[in-house]
Amino acid sequence: MLLEASGVVQTFGQLRAVDSADLTVAKGEIVGLIGPNGAGKSTFFNALAGDRPPDDGRILFEGHDITHEGPEQHARRGIARTFQVPLTFEDMTVAENVLVGAFLRHSHRTAAEAVTRDVLEFTGLAPMADRRAGMLGTPGRKRLEIARALATEPRLLLLDEALAGLTPAEVQVAIGLVRRLHVRGITLVIVEHIMEVILTLAERAVVFHQGRVIAAGPPRAVVNDPAVVAAYLGHRMSRQIQQ
Amino acid sequence: MKRLWWLLPLVLVVLVWPLLAGDAFYQRIGALVVLAAISASAWNLIGGYAGQVSVGHAIFFGAGAYAALAVYTHLGWPPIAGVPLGIAVSLILAVLIGTPTFRLRGHYFSMATIAAAELIRLLAANWAWIGAAIGLMGPAAPRTLADLTFRSPLPYYYIFLGVLALLLSLTAAMERSRMGYYLRAINGGERAARSLGVPVLRYKLFALMLSATFTSVAGSLYAVMVGFADPDSTLGILISVKMIIVAALGGAGTLFGPLIGAVLLIPLEEWTNAAFGGSGTGVTYVVYGAIILLITRFEPGGLLHLASRIRGRPRAA
User: Fold this and answer.
1) What residue spans define the domains of chain A?
2) For the segment A98-127, what is each residue's pLDDT rounded down to a tens digit?
3) Which of A8, A33, B208, B309 is the most exposed place for a label (fewest CB within 10 A)?
4) Which of A49, A99, A112 lies nearest to residue B195, judging by beta carbons?
5) What ipTM did this prediction achieve?
């Protein structure tokens, strides 16, 4: 197993946002985390990324206990991430943003620049390499976040709603990019609202509801699971539909 | 190397003008400009590149100034021999102040540095070993050349210029290295920087230590030239504020921004002092306040940013 999270608990005061959640990800998988708003999937995701250590539970990456390691150690171990609301370095150019990521594995500028060129080419950002990141629109900034994460040469990439807010045409382009990342051998965990993305991309979907995992399996089977339908639509409505 | 050619005539002018001017008044202003450029460039490492706006850099300036005059007063050494002591004290203070305050963000960090600087100013004003409120004096007349006590401002001008050249070459090298990019990434957003593996606290501390070192050297050089240090003139908040304004006016986070800011601001300050008499601190505050207002309202990136915008190029490409 590449990633094994077990019994993860994350509380905010009285609220148990994540209540004993488990997730295992095998090398080469694409796993989708889905669930209604406030289900705890983003909180769980941030615990995986090392943003906020969980209050209980254990997270292993390639057999190492990374439960209490910060985001910078995660990056060094080979876990990269994007943010729900893009956090690009606005005053730096697109290429410089990527260069910061590339410096993780290459302390020398020439080597880091070579990686940056490859990544910009791969993600289709090369034509805007010298543009200031603050001048990009949402799709561009989301792609830049993926590029920057890719430059750290990760084995596991965590995408937090990397496709939200894109037009249908932009979503298709982004899906293509995620596929090519996967072909490159990167394991992916994606949090996504758009069901179409999960259905087309993920090999396995894990459904969160009220801080717990209520279903897991092939996406098409999972979305027809009565418990999942109930979680999304509420019990009364799902009963009406089944009748 | 090609892009450095345009620097050559500029360097010649910088080296030769004081000899042609021949007037000690202008030569003294020239020395003060270079000294202000050193402090502001040192502040720029942490305040500009890393975006950690310290308003307490007078601590390191004062440590350097007092160290120079303390080795003279207590050991009879030439003041310049106090430079290593000033650096050592500044490094210790940088770690002591940086470690807790770097966990604070934005304005809270700035406020904590003000508090630390005021605390140290009050301690210095009550510490008899460094002259308490009266301060320390340097040698009145040179005993040897090593005392660096000159009647003409010219030698100071050239000594300061050498230190500035060293600091700017170091900064230029840093700007193009991993450290330069990491500091700018920290400035751009710590959460994103950490997610890319940037050890934020370690780099902030390293930048502060480098910054403190050169600020301390600037303080020692100031004490060597002026031959005097007291709590207000070396540890006062105005010293810290001046570094920020000089750097921000020219362009914080750029290589030559602080130098350009010093070239514009220091003659202006000397002129207000001359025109309004006395030490002129009252008017100086007004001028500083006006500059802060203008920069923040119209061009937060400073004059270099304005220039590159006019030419239609992205900043620091």
Assistant:
1) 3-78+154-242, 87-139+146-151
2) 999 999 999 999 999 999 999 999 999 999
3) B309
4) A49
5) 0.93
